[in-house]
């Protein structure tokens, strides 16, 4: 596994930096489902200490990204497609709340940023740039969450988003970036316009696409 360069903004805790670095490796399948978690390797890859690393791994265990198995220790949790359908059911409820809250509460600058992220997703899809698409997707999540000003909903939805993102990387051959970008753009447009109903409908459209995509994977 290649060494990972980790930036360390002054305001970020070491455990948060470790979490972000390992999460990225899990989501992008550098750490594959079923792979063992080897602390010494992660310390070498991230350049971070054992204490923040262990704190990050505890958070990942509570989020369901890694699991503890008898006599095997910590491993990356498998991707279970059937379970993913119920995950989307749960995410749908929270995403509607976050979208409508963001449409109601976003500042003018955040509305511009949200719309810009949607445009970047569309451009990346048109250019077939998966990494740029996923980066814009993550940026959109961050700014929408900030705009919603609902930390409880954000805390609840983040583990679900992470699992959805990993699912996309694992089964991207079944996905449609153009349709996904269109759905995200509808969501972004609704929030940018301050239209709570349109924003909530945009969230629904996105969850409809994710559910359809998941069922396509399940049915082979």
- Estimate the global geometry from the Cα principal axes: globular
Radius of gyration, in Å, reads 18 Å
- Give the amount of beta strand, in percent: under 5%
Percentage of helical residues? over 70%
Number of strands: 2
Largest sheet: 2 strands, antiparallel
| Overall average pLDDT | 91
Distance between the termini: 30 Å
Order of helices and strands: HHHEEHHHHHH
Strand order of the largest sheet: 1-2
Poorly predicted sequence stretches spanning 5 or more consecutive residues: 5-10
Given helix and strand content, the structural type is mainly alpha
The helix count comes to 9
Describe the structure.
This protein has 220 residues and is mainly α. It has helices at residues 14-27, 39-46, 50-63, 81-105, 108-127, 130-148, 151-170, 177-192, 196-219; strands spanning 66-69, 73-76. Strands 1-2 form a two-stranded antiparallel sheet. Helix 1 (14-27) crosses helix 3. The longest helix has 25 residues, at 81-105. The protein is globular and about 50 Å long.
Keywords for this structure?
single chain, 220 residues, mainly alpha, two-stranded antiparallel ribbon, GntR_C, transcription regulation, DNA binding, GntR family transcriptional regulator, TF_FadR/GntR_C
């Amino acid at each position: 596994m290649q060494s990972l360069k980790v930036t360390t903004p002054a305001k970020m805790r070491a455990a948060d930096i470790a979490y972000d670095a390992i999460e990225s490796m899990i989501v992008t399948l550098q750490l594959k489902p079923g792979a063992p978690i080897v602390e010494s390797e992660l310390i070498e890859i991230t350049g971070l200490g054992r204490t923040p690393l262990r704190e990050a791994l505890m958070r990942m265990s509570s989020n369901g990204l890694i699991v503890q198995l008898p006599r095997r220790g910590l491993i990356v949790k498998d991707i279970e497609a059937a379970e993913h359908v119920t995950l989307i059911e749960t995410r749908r409820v929270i995403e509607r709340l976050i979208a409508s809250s963001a449409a109601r509460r976003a500042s003018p600058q955040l509305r511009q940023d949200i719309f810009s992220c949607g445009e970047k997703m569309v451009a990346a899809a048109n250019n077939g740039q998966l990494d740029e698409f996923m980066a814009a997707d993550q940026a959109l999540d961050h700014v929408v969450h900030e705009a919603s000003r609902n930390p409880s909903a954000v805390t609840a939805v983040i583990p679900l988003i992470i699992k959805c993102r990993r699912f996309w990387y694992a089964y991207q051959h079944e996905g449609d970036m153009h349709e996904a970008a269109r759905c995200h753009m509808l969501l972004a447009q609704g929030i940018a316009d301050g239209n709570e109903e349109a924003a909530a409908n945009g969230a629904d459209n996105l969850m409809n696409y994710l559910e359809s995509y998941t069922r396509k994977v399940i049915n082979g």
